[in-house]
Design a protein that fits this description.
Strand content: under 5%
Number of domains: 1
Distance between the termini: 17 Å
Largest sheet: none
Shape: elongated
Helix content: over 70%
Oligomer: single chain
Structural class: mainly alpha
Order of helices and strands: HHHHH
Length: 118
């Protein structure tokens, strides 16, 4: 992904989150939210879903960078959007497992965060 695309993506996420949070706050102040028991609690449910899926999208931007082939990119996208943090934790465990084989001179965090998968 190039820099401009990432700037556009994260600007859209920021603007959308400001808008949906403002809307939910206008419908019902957060301190009055009672869960899903009564109306208009749907506003904060919607805002929370926006927040969760934008978090999934942010994580997926990194997966898209890390994975070079389209098959794993598509499969991880589906898994992350369907399973959320369970898929994200699975991806991290997969990546952390691969660090076991890194040489003593490698910075394991740099390897984890920056190196691409073959």
């Amino acid at each position: 992904m190039n820099r401009r695309l990432l700037i556009a993506l994260f600007a859209l996420i920021l603007i959308s989150m400001i808008a949906v949070t403002s809307w939910a706050s206008w419908v019902q102040p957060v301190w009055e939210w009672t869960g899903l028991k009564q109306q208009p609690n749907h506003a904060w449910t919607i805002a929370t879903l926006f927040d969760a899926y934008f978090g999934f999208t942010t994580f997926y931007a990194w997966v898209l960078y890390k994975e070079n082939r389209w098959t794993p990119r598509i499969l991880w996208f589906v898994a992350i959007m369907a399973l959320g943090n369970m898929a994200m934790a699975s991806y991290m465990l997969k990546e952390l497992w691969k660090l076991r084989g890194s040489s003593a001179g490698d910075d394991p965090m740099q390897t984890l965060l920056v190196s691409k998968n073959g």
